[in-house]
Amino acid sequence: MASFLKDKHAKVYKKSAGYQDAYGVWHKGGYSLIGNLWCYTRQLSQDQKNEARIYGVDESRMFVFNYRNDVAVYDLILYRGTWYTITRVDTTNDNKGDLFVYVNEAATGDIPKPSELPAD
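RE: above sequence
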């Protein structure tokens, strides 16, 4: 089994929907910080990008985190000033070891405004 040196930080955000409380007041949703996580990351090779396109997904980068069960598809990752949308989350043989997260650069409309992000 391969071992990955997790020597970089990436912030993972989960989008929360708005909700209506018991008094009928609508509360706007936003983004919550899952964590500033240690990771290993690299760009995907051209062969890996082409293989993903066969299945109808665009992917450009892979992150490897320690196992977490709260990272999901469509969450956002901020890494070195670039926003990424999670397209696929995978584990090795369904074990709770490394968590492989495949991403693509986020579309401009999906990038949260600074006012929507929690304070660090």
